[in-house]
Amino acid sequence: MKVKLQFILTFLIAYSLIAQTISDKIDSIRIRYQIPALEIAVISSDSILMKALGTNKVNSNVQVTLQNRFHLGSNTKAITSFIAADLVSQGKINWNTDFFHLFPELKAKQNQSKSLTLINLLNFKAPLAPFSYDTYIPESVVITGTNQEQRYNIAKYLLTQKAVKKNNDDLYLTNLGYVLAGLMLEKVSNKNYYELVNDLKKKLNIDFRFGSPNTQDEQQTYGHYEQLVPLIEENIKLNWLLSAGNINTTLPDYSLYIQNYLKGLEGKGIPFKKETFEQLLFQFPIFSFGWFKKTGKDGKSYINNFGNANGFMSSVSIFKEKKIAIIIFGNLSSESANEGIDLVLEMLAEKYCT
Fold this sequence. Notes:
By secondary structure, the chain is α+β, with helices and mostly antiparallel strands. The protein has two domains: 30-72 and 206-352, Beta-lactamase (3-Layer(aba) Sandwich), CATH 3.40.710.10; 81-189, no CATH class. It has helices at 2-32, 76-89, 99-102, 118-121, 147-158, 176-189, 193-204, 236-240, 242-245, 251-265, 274-282, 335-352; strands at 37-43, 48-54, 69-71, 209-210, 247-250, 287-288, 291-295, 301-309, 312-319, 324-330. It has a seven-stranded antiparallel beta sheet with strand order 2-1-10-9-8-7-6, with helices on both faces. The radius of gyration is 21 Å and the shape is globular.
């Protein structure tokens, strides 16, 4: 019994030292790339390892903890797709429901030939105009009223504009598809997007919120752009892009959300059967319901989504064969921060997925 206990203690000490070594390496990357805060998680279907490093903003002495919130940016797309799948399973909509079936008044000569089914909108397969944080919206477009009414009016205008060109993977890369999908989900559920996310919070016991964390709590995490200037004001366009990228959360909550996918692939997820989780993650070869297929340096494939908004960056990857997911949160949006996050992902993938 003593020998067995000694072995367990030795193993735990060794594991702690290895974890600390990785943590030190990641912190050195954080410092080298001037990222005020980095948080990481390595997830399996039955365990979650997490670490918080750095401060809530540049030149601050407030250390981040696992209670700090980070903006997800485009990782919101997987959450919107999850909500869509839930409404499909409830029979309130189906994947082939067309946008113009629900909003016939928005059909015009410029868009009448477009196939804007829910599944196409959520998978970048719909030819639509570009729409992002820097998209010009003329003053003639009415953007007053509720957030839902503003998004409707902006969508009405953008549906008359020229579509982006297909990329080499035959995808139309624009946030507009997710904005239109969000309007559809609101219509069939008789709830706004905030209420739909709140329903998901209750179903999964995960605390999703909206906007920049620091505008609601000064001790929370601040986003930063290139010059490391903390952002202190909300960007109104994030409300227009709500269902495409404006959710924030903590690392523990987001880890539980991603862990639910891993459990789902084992037939133990909430609220879907295994087939639905497989569909959401892998139905299409390049992009599937918020997830891009990637290939690592070892030649093995994995799926990933990378969020970049409000001065935050977030990376989440799922390695199906290894049954492991890796999350990296950072509060600096820059090319160098992107490089740093890629290095951290490479290090963690080599450690836990090879």
